[in-house]
Amino acid sequence: MMLLLDTHVVSEVRKHSWHPNVKAGMIAQAAGTLYICAITVLEIQRGVLPRICRTFVRSLL
């Protein structure tokens, strides 16, 4: 079985404390069955990465 992860799921997994339902669902899946599509990669690049970069730059100041 293949599981295509939505941007919201990928974002939730990045958090220090996951929602219990997301955590249970991810633990139940084999790592080789988890995938993300190109649209999810783009959404991450445009949404998550800029925040990470800003946080990193602030930590250097």
Helix-strand category: mainly alpha
Separation of the first and last Cα atoms: 46 Å
DSSP summary, beta strand count: 2
β content, as a range?
5-15%
Please trace the helix and strand order, writing H or E for each element.
Answer: EHHEH
Report helical residue fraction: 55-70%
- Radius of gyration, in Å, reads 14 Å
Low-confidence stretches: none
Count of discrete alpha- or pi-helical segments spanning 4 or more residues: 3
Question: Residue-averaged pLDDT, rounded?
Answer: 86
Indicate the overall shape.
Answer: globular
The largest sheet, given as strand count, sense and whether it forms a barrel, is: 2 strands, parallel
Can you tag this structure with a few keywords?
61 residues; 3 helices
Can you walk through the features of this model?
- With 61 residues, this protein is mainly α.
- Helices cover 66% and strands 7% of the residues.
- It has helices at 7-14, 20-28, 38-60, and strands at residues 3-4, 34-35.
- It has a two-stranded parallel sheet.
- It is globular and about 45 Å long.
- The model has no long low-confidence stretch (mean pLDDT 86).
